[in-house]
Amino acid sequence: MPPANEVSPITAVLAAANRIILGKEGQIRLAVACLLARGHLLIEDLPGVGKTTMAQTLARLLGLQFSRIQFTSDMLPADIIGVSILSANAATSSSCPALSSAKYCWPTRSTAPRRKRRARCSKRWKNAK
């Protein structure tokens, strides 16, 4: 058991991230838990609320590589990072890299969908000459 005055590395990362990103303690804690579990994380929210900043901050604090890819919702993690294939006969695994990576991807536009405009009433213009 560590001494009472010693801070765990996870607590230090959470505290540093909370000093940089204000008001997102729960989201930061969940993102760190996802990283520790070696899982994938999908961050969805409105534009401009700090999703990229949070990911970049956690990557820098943990000494990880960061690159941003934005696509449609039908994209899977394997499309970006590739897959590992286990050979049952040889009991070995081989890595198949993805066809797309951050260098080769064309990002989509990061804007909110536009509201449809209502059609103008044609009756108003009938009598005008």
Produce the secondary structure layout.
Layout: H1 9-20, H2 25-36, H3 51-62, H4 77-81, E1 83-87, E2 92-96, H5 123-126
Antiparallel strand pairs: 1-2
Helix pairs in contact: 1-2, 1-3
Shape: flat
Q: What is the beta-strand fraction?
A: 5-15%
Mean pLDDT: 76
Number of E-type strands = 2
Taking the sheet with the most strands, its summary is: 2 strands, antiparallel
Task: Report the helical percentage.
Answer: 25-40%
Uncertain segments = 104-108
Question: Measured on Cα atoms, how large is the radius of gyration?
Answer: 23 Å
Structurally, the number of domains stands at: 2
- Which strand order does the major sheet show? 1-2
Characterization of this structure:
With 129 residues, the protein is mainly α. It has two domains: 1-66, no CATH class; 74-108, no CATH class. The chain is 35% helix and 8% strand. The protein is built from five helices and two strands, in the order H-H-H-H-E-E-H. It has helices spanning 9-20, 25-36, 51-62, 77-81, 123-126, and strands spanning 83-87, 92-96. Helix 1 (9-20) packs across helix 2. The longest helix has 12 residues, at 9-20. It starts with 8 loop residues before the first helix and ends with a helix.
